[in-house]
Amino acid sequence: MTGPQTRPAATEPGGYAAARLRLLHQGALTGPPRRAALARLTDQWLGALLGETRGVALVAVGGYGRGELSPRSDLDVLLLHDGTADISKIAAVADRVWYPVWDMGLALDHSVRTPAEARRTAAGDLKVHLGLLDARHLAGDEQLTAALRTTAYEDWRAQAPTRLPELRELGEDRTRHQGELRFLLEPDLKEARGGLRDATALRAVAASWLADAPRAGLERARAHLLDVRDALHLTTGRATDRLALQEQDQVAEALGLTDADALLHGVYEAARTVSYAADITWREVGRVLRARSVRPRLRRILGGRGGRGGFAEVERLSLADGVVEQDGEAGLARTARPERDPVLALRAAAAAAQAGLPLSPHAVRRLAASAGPMPQPWPAEAREQLVTLLGAGPPTVPVWEALEAEGIISTLLPEWEHVRCRPQRNAVHRWTVDRHLVETAVRAAALTRRVGRPDLLLVAALLHDIGKGLPGDHSVTGEALARDVARRTGFDAADTDVLATLVRHHLLLIDTATRRDLADPATIRTVTDAVPDTATLELLHALTEADALATGPAAWSAWRASLVAELVRRAAAALAGDGAPPPHAPAPPPPEALRLAAEAVRTGAPAVTLESRPEGTGPAGDGDPAPVGVELRIAVPEQPGVLPAAAGVLALHRLTVRAADLHAVDGVLLLNWRVAAEYGSPPGAARLRNDLVRALDGSLDVPARLAEREAAYSRRRRGVVHAPPSVTVAAAASHGATVLEVRAQDEPGLLHRIGRALDGAGVWVRSARVSTLGASAVDAFYVTGPDGAALTPRAASAIARATEEALGG
Asked: Which pLDDT score is estimated for 677?
């Protein structure tokens, strides 16, 4: 089985060891060229050890098969034989190869099999099968190796429907045990999520021909992780994949980086790329496998009919203007024109997050490539969509990461680059700075019912650590950056001041509460000197809790929460004496509204006018966004059910209420609405008036129609959980009426349900102030009893509870 041979210098006794040493420590090669050169050198050596053979092949598998040998990598080698030779002769050949490797002190993962044995082993062991997909011939009978590779790939593609779910479960199990590489201070470069194992899994998925990973940046990310592992091996002299803290400075130096933070930043960037590619790829695998399982049933049901090729068209459900749900993803409508619609990226992201859907990778790439620049300052809709995205809770995270992966976030918020993938060398922190900021917004979304300005809370959550990564105190630096962002995104001067205050003092409450004596008036002055009013204090309290919850389990506890709450209580008393300021009353109706009321009195029927407004025009007061879309005025002779009827008609026509004022004037209810069409054009005033008349006389069953829509809406938002609604009585807010404050998730028909609940309670709505801030509704209703007097405290509390229950609280 062997014969004479000529050995290259590297294959002489001691030659391989010397050549290997020179290559790793004295050569000019680094990165992929060095790994490939080490693989070639090892190929020559092992090939010479095997010698000339018949019926035997030496095959590299796994990482060695890919030609990616790190300095301390295992040599994964298979001795393949055709089964015709005596087993003792095969054993002698194996010993001739294995023992020199062991004598060198190299780790060897070896096996001896026939092609049939290799196939059977692969069928029972996924990891073996994965290794064979990278099989590469080293020496001996090339036909044996070629046949093995062909069989391995044929089996892999035939078994993909069962193998790929198994491969995905292996990855999920690794994540449970090893965590996510991009958030770990001492990551395992191979086993953690987003590491080298996941990159290899993506190659296996591509080999199945069922799906393929996004290619942009993936190979560069994988190569970077391999470069770091090479430097780690050379620095430690060990076969380790864990980047321990005490070795990071040395590894950074070996790679020519400034420090360990720069090292981790690059590792996190690479891991983020791999993780994002994995998310997209596994989602596509799931879609393909589901389609394969459904199509045979469709063939039977449709009998070869029902669309092109006998298959039904995939349903496309509209989510927002230019945004649709298709096949479990949020994508762009066929009519969408990103180059003409700079708000589309944020609108698509907000719609996807609110629906609990991932953004289609194709849609994100198209948005990144063709979206026009955002006007400065941002249009009001853009700001609202950003707040809506941030307020969606946990579904915000994957949508935000999709935008970030394609560079959209850094385009919209250039300040984000300072915190992107920035490590936090603090054991308390679970996340990198950027992910911590998004996680804080996620936590803040659950607290929006506690504050009067949920939009400011969510934006402050996103920006509170934006100063990290720049010189100086990050709170001071962040305050200046927050002002820039607030002005650019279109917040007015008063809101900009509030956001700057929240960012500047986001650590004030937790530091003061845990380090100072709360009974000392000087402690309370520390807070009241920094925070101008109770509304801002309310926001700072919620931000403090969200920040701590997003930091990690050790950052927030019942004890800390109680200390902060007590500090806030004392500071609020010092600022206002009796708590938060009352809600703003609606502004007096303008002359045109009074003229409309006169028409309603004259005709005894509803009067409706509708006026389109360009984006961002019109007055804005008390921190409200400028009017957007359509201004709608309705005057109706006073009667029960006007508010739910009018709100229901708007919901049926898919008009989203951005703001509204309601007044009772001389026997007429005046409703002034600022609305925007979910998609398409709004209906005309005549059509709205006709439907309102029908809703009031009972010929249009608004509740039933809305119930159908609400059921469909709920199905499309499966798994999305929002903070429960809150209905409270605002004490001493009005002398002539009782003020009920409603804070809830803005949904189709919400105002209709509130109106029905108040009508059912037997109270009259004398005026109301309705505002939608992102995806949160913050409404104040001034109500009286049938006698026109304010409610008793007991009655008011009962109606607040009943209304909250009606809204699902």
From this structure: 83
CA distances from 167 to 155, 172, 213, 270, 696 (A): 15, 9, 15, 21, 59
Let me know: does 39 contact 64? Beta carbons within 8 Å.
Answer: yes
Helix (H, G, I), strand (E, B) or coil at 60: strand
Spacing of C-alpha 45 from chain mean position: 49
Tell whether the model's pLDDT for residue 778 goes beyond 60.
Answer: yes
Burial class (CB in 10 A: 0-12, 13-18, 19+), 21: exposed
CA distance 534 to 267: 44
Tokens 């700079």, located at residue? 342
Whether the Cβ atoms of residue 180 and residue 193 lie closer than 8 Å to each other = yes
**pLDDT of 41 strictly over 80:** yes
pLDDT tens for 335-385 read 999 999 999 999 999 999 999 999 999 999 999 998 778 999 999 999 999
pLDDT digits (tens, 9 = 90+) for 728-765: 998 766 778 899 999 999 888 899 999 999 999 999 98
> Which contiguous run of DSSP H or E holds residue 741?
strand 738-745
Res 279 pLDDT > 90: yes
**Helix, coil or strand: residue 660:** strand
Q: State yes or no: pLDDT of 417 exceeds 90.
A: yes
Query: Among 96-100, 123-127, 293-297, which is the least confidently predicted range?
Result: 293-297
Other CB atoms within a 10 A radius of the CB of residue 312 amount to: 13
Tell me the pairing of strands 75-81 and 108-113.
parallel
Which helix (DSSP H) or strand (DSSP E) does residue 380 occupy?
helix 380-390
Nearest-angstrom CA–CA distance, 38 and 229: 15
For the cut 50, the answer to whether the pLDDT of residue 582 exceeds it is yes
Residue type, 281: T
Give the pLDDT mean for 447-468: 96
To the nearest 10°, the Cα dihedral for 562, 567, 572, 575? 180
Q: How many whole angstroms separate alpha carbon 476 and alpha carbon 755?
A: 45
Give me the phi and psi of 7, to 5 degrees please.
-90, 130
Question: 739 has which bridge partners?
Answer: 730, 782
CA distance 71 to 230: 6
Cα–Cα nearest to 752, from 674, 642, 630, 673: 642
Nearest to 283 by CA among 225, 348, 352: 352
Phi-psi region of 111 (alpha: psi -120 to 50; beta: other; left: phi over 0): beta
Question: What residue spans of 108-179 are helical by DSSP H?
Answer: 115-124, 126-133, 142-158, 160-178
Residue with tokens 């921190």: 623
Tokens at 184, concatenated: 């770990």
Task: Take residue 499 and report the two structure tokens written for it.
Answer: 């956001």
Give the strands of the sheet with 316-320, arranged side by side. Answer: 316-320, 323-326, 329-332
How many residues in the chain? 809
Strands 738-745 and 776-784: antiparallel
Average pLDDT over residues 528-555: 94
H or E stretch covering 59: strand 56-60
- Residue 360 in contact with residue 327, Cβ under 8 Å? no
The reported pLDDT for the residue numbered 216 is: 77
The enclosing H or E element of 308 equals none
Q: Name the amino acid, one letter, at 747.
A: E
pLDDT, tens digit, 9 for 90 and up, residues 794-803: 999 999 999 9
State residue 722's pLDDT score: 82
pLDDT category of residue 5 using cuts at 50, 70 and 90: very low
- β-pairing, 329-332 vs 630-637, is unpaired
- DSSP string for residues in 437-488: HHHHHHHHHTTGGG-S-HHHHHHHHHHTTTTTTSSS-HHHHHHHHHHHHHHH
Q: What is the pTM of this model?
A: 0.87
- Share the mean pLDDT of the chain: 89
Q: What is the pLDDT of residue 96?
A: 94
Element (H, E) at 657: strand 655-665
* Torsion (CA) 128, 132, 133, 134 in degrees, nearest 10: 110
